[in-house]
């Protein structure tokens, strides 16, 4: 084996990983990663102090991460990498609802919510009442009965359940469609919020003029037999943060209007004694 020099270390390291990996795909990825990392170091004449600071930063990202706090996902999101991977791997036709990134606050196994009922953890006095209704269909317009919408969002303070310790299920649920593909649930209007800034990603953002805010939105994973699952979320068109989303997740097709209504009868038939909002949102899924 030749000894490493400043001119040969990249080729030596890349070749070792490419040939040494038992999985060819792993070898390919690692060799490419090494070449890009080394090119970055050369292009920017990386100092030993900067390299050490970078390793300390990544260590803090790992230490901050746990089953609820996904600091590495947050880092990927703020670098635009999560959105890039989403866009590359989820090309859909013009008629299909557009996907966007998952985000760091998803919690699986949400409770089932009957048609027209509210997401758990929402009291009458919480936030601005919002009724979300619509239809799930395939690209040919056929309704998808029994499709399941996995929904989650923040509360009126901008907090997700995943940010709380020991919380019961709140502001998340599974909503099934009826025979005609329709669905309906009650929630509260989401609000703009800042990503968690009490960790290393927040420290990094604080060293820039980049906004730490995301525009108000509601998350969905929509699943139906015979169709590709859709991971997306929709954004309140009135948010001033639409064009500065810190994780680059906004897409023009996903900006929606929450329509104001006076106090009265809501879409689910209940009487609401204060103004409320209605979002009519149809989903179109691609076949597998």
TrEMBL record:
GO terms for biological process: catechol-containing compound metabolic process. SUPFAM superfamilies: Aromatic compound dioxygenase. Residues 132-160 form the Intradiol ring-cleavage dioxygenases domain. GO terms for molecular function: catechol 1,2-dioxygenase activity; ferric iron binding. Keywords: Dioxygenase, Iron, Metal-binding, Oxidoreductase. It comes from the Bacteria. Its cofactor is Fe(3+). PANTHER family: DIOXYGENASE, PUTATIVE (AFU_ORTHOLOGUE AFUA_2G02910)-RELATED (PTHR33711), INTRADIOL RING-CLEAVAGE DIOXYGENASES DOMAIN-CONTAINING PROTEIN-RELATED (PTHR33711:SF7). Belongs to the intradiol ring-cleavage dioxygenase family. This is Catechol 1,2-dioxygenase. It comes from Alteraurantiacibacter aestuarii. The lineage of its organism: Bacteria, Pseudomonadati, Pseudomonadota, Alphaproteobacteria, Sphingomonadales.
């Amino acid at each position: 084996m030749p000894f490493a020099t400043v001119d040969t270390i990249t080729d030596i390291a890349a070749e070792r990983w490419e040939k040494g990996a038992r999985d060819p795909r792993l070898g390919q990825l690692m060799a490419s990663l090494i070449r890009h990392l080394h090119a970055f170091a050369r292009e920017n004449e990386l100092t030993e102090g900067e390299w050490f600071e970078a390793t300390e930063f990544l260590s803090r990202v790992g230490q901050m991460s746990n089953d609820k706090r996904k600091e590495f996902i947050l880092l990927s999101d703020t670098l635009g990498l999560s959105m890039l991977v989403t866009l590359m791997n989820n090309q859909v036709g013009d008629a299909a609802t557009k996907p966007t990134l998952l985000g760091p606050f998803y919690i699986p196994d949400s409770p089932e919510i009957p048609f027209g009922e509210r997401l758990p953890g929402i009291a009458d006095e919480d936030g601005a009442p919002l009724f979300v209704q619509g239809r799930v269909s395939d690209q040919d317009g056929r309704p998808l009965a029994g499709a399941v919408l996995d929904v989650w969002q923040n509360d009126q303070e901008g907090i997700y359940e995943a940010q709380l310790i020991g919380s019961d299920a709140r502001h998340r649920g599974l909503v099934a469609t009826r025979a005609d593909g329709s669905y309906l649930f009650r929630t509260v209007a989401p609000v703009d919020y800042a990503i968690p800034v009490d960790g290393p990603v927040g420290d990094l953002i604080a060293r820039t003029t980049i906004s730490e805010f995301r525009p108000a939105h509601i998350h969905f994973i929509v699943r139906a037999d015979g169709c590709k699952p859709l991971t997306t979320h929709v954004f309140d068109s009135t948010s001033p943060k639409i064009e500065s989303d810190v994780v680059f997740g906004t897409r023009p097709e996903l900006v929606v209007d929450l329509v104001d209504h006076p106090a009265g009868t809501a879409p689910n038939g209940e009487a609401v004694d204060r103004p409320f909002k209605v979002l009519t949102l149809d989903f179109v899924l691609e076949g597998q």
